[in-house]
Specification:
With 128 residues, the protein is mostly helical. 63% of the residues lie in helices and 0% in strands.
Length: 128
């Protein structure tokens, strides 16, 4: 006999994902359901719930919205990469230029965008 939705919830203990450990646990369970040949209605419901939890976590920890300015994207990448503003000195040349780029007061040139793309492993086009 297949497990009920309540039994699956008790087994999985889905929570709003707050840590990498939670994320790994929830995505592993989601992945197991994803590759299963035939899912019960209860398993489909659980998979949908886990998908919502994963999507929520990814949205909170992914890139900022598409309408973010280049300065906001740069600040986000700096905050989440463990790098410091001083690590951007080779790109901008002076501390004041780094600060101005981070606050949106100085546009990012194509050459600077290429260097930033290499530093953060992203497409340079997001900075222009």
């Amino acid at each position: 006999m297949s497990a009920t939705y309540e039994e699956l919830l008790t087994e999985t203990i889905p929570v709003r994902i707050a840590t990498e450990i939670d994320y790994d646990r929830i995505t592993a369970r989601f992945g197991a359901l994803l590759i299963a040949r035939k899912l019960t209605t209860a398993e489909k419901r659980l998979m949908e719930l886990l998908g919502v939890l994963i999507e929520d976590y990814d949205r909170r920890h992914g890139l900022p919205p598409d309408d973010s300015t280049p300065a906001e994207l740069l600040q986000f990448l700096l905050d989440h990469s463990g790098k410091k503003a001083t690590d951007l000195l080779p790109v901008f040349g002076q501390r004041s230029h780094v600060y101005e780029a981070l606050t949106g007061k100085r546009p990012i040139s194509a050459d600077q965008a290429r260097k930033l793309g290499a530093i953060f492993h992203v497409r340079p086009g997001i900075f222009v």
